[in-house]
Design goal:
Helix content: 10-25%
Number of domains: 1
Shape: globular
Number of strands: 7
Oligomer: single chain
Radius of gyration: 14 Å
Strand content: 25-35%
Structural class: alpha+beta
Order of helices and strands: EHHHEEEEEEH
Strand order of the largest sheet: 1-7-6-5-4-3-2
CATH class: Alpha Beta
Largest sheet: 7 strands, antiparallel
Length: about 150
C-alpha cells in the first residue's frame, strides 16, 4: 500500500466538517450517498463494509478516526480472485474547514491496473452524491447500485 501515485479527489461541500464527518462514519448516513447496505464500526480495527450493488462487497478496516477531521480505512473487494482483494488498499479522507464549508480531500492508495480508472471515476461519482445529500438534495437511485454495473 505504499503507492506513490494515489487516486486524489477534492470537493468543496457547503457544510462544516462537524456535519460532514458523520456521513463518513455512521452507517445510516453513509448509506444515503453510497451503497445498498453498510456496516461501519469507526474505530481503529473496526469493520468497514459496503455492499454497493447487491453483488459485490467492499471490505476493510478502519485505521484512523479523528473527528471531525480525518478518516482512514483499508479497502478492497470480497470477490474471489478480484485484482484488489479485501483490505489491500487504503483510503484517506481529510476534512478542512474552508469558506464556511468543508474542503474534502480523498486519497486512495494502492489502486493499480485494470481497477484504477473505475475507482477514480467512482470516487468522483460518490463524492458528488455526498455533496448533494449534505446540500439537502436527493441524489436519486445510484446507477452504480444495480448488479449489472460492475464497480471495481
Amino acid at each position: 500500500m505504499s503507492d506513490e501515485n494515489p487516486i486524489e479527489r477534492e470537493i468543496f461541500i457547503d457544510a462544516p466538517p462537524e456535519k460532514v464527518f458523520p456521513y463518513l462514519t455512521e452507517s445510516k448516513k453513509y448509506l444515503l450517498w453510497m451503497g445498498l447496505s453498510v456496516e461501519l464500526d469507526p474505530r481503529p480495527g473496526g469493520v468497514f463494509k459496503v455492499d454497493p450493488n447487491g453483488r459485490d462487497v467492499i471490505f476493510g478496516k478502519f485505521v484512523e478516526v479523528i473527528p471531525p477531521r480525518r478518516v482512514v480505512f483499508t479497502w478492497g473487494w470480497n470477490e474471489p480472485d478480484h485484482p484488489m482483494p479485501a483490505g489491500s488498499s487504503r483510503v484517506e479522507i481529510d476534512l478542512q474547514a474552508h469558506n464556511n464549508g468543508t474542503l474534502l480531500r480523498l486519497r486512495h492508495y494502492g489502486v493499480a491496473g485494470t481497477v484504477r480508472d473505475r475507482h477514480a471515476s467512482g470516487w468522483m461519482h460518490y463524492l458528488s452524491r455526498l455533496k448533494m445529500v449534505l446540500a439537502g438534495q436527493d441524489p436519486g437511485p445510484d446507477p452504480y447500485g444495480v448488479p449489472e454495473h460492475k464497480h471495481g
